[in-house]
Amino acid sequence: MLSVIYVSVADPGLTPDDIASLVEGAQRCNARDELTGALIYNGQNFMQLLEGPVAKAEACLARIRADRRHNGMIEIRRRLVTTREFAGFSMLYSPLFRDHDEDLSRLAAQGTLDPQDERLIANFLALGRHGGAG
Ligand SMILES: Cc1cc2nc3c(=O)[nH]c(=O)nc-3n(C[C@H](O)[C@H](O)[C@H](O)COP(=O)(O)O)c2cc1C
Asked: What distance in angstroms lies between residue 63's CA and the mean position of ligand 1's atoms?
């Protein structure tokens, strides 16, 4: 399976309803495509992990890349994996994940991982084990 983490810059006009329908749509498509993952949003940027069968994950990433609700998509981690980090979550969305808002914005603007980003990524991945509460 392929597992990719990317960051991007959200369209500044997105409303809470837009985010809700984006998440609903992603969950519906991912359930169909055997994809799982997680999404966070700090009001300006997205970080998403998408994982699943290589061809389906690549096709989905291509659709996401073309989506005008965000831009400047930068992959920060890409690997082939044998186990899922978000098994059971078609797309976990965690609106309470706000401790790393500034790190996420800097990462999305800069596109390179700083040492402190390890905590951001570790806490993001931990959502898969804790169920997305925060
Ligand atoms: C930040 C972000 C994350 C998205 N995540 C997913 C996703 O996980 N799965 C998915 O199928 N679509 C996701 N989408 C939506 C896709 O870009 C696309 O609208 C959707 O797959 C439907 O594509 P279609 O209209 O070509 O069928 C996401 C869009 C954005 C902006």
From this structure: 6
d(CA 115, CA 38): 22
What are the two backbone dihedrals, phi and then psi, of residue 12, each rounded to the nearest 5 degrees? -65, -15
Cα-to-chain-centroid distance, residue 45: 10
Q: What domain count does the chain have?
A: 1
Boundaries of domain holding 103: 2-130
List pLDDT tens digits, range 38-74: 999 999 999 999 999 999 999 999 999 999 999 999 9
Cβ(29) – ligand 1 distance below 6 Å? yes
Whole-model pTM above 0.85?
yes
Identify the residue whose C-alpha is closest to ligand 1 atom 6: 26
The residue whose C-alpha atom lies closest to atom 13 belonging to ligand 1 is 26
30: domain CATH number? 3.30.70.100
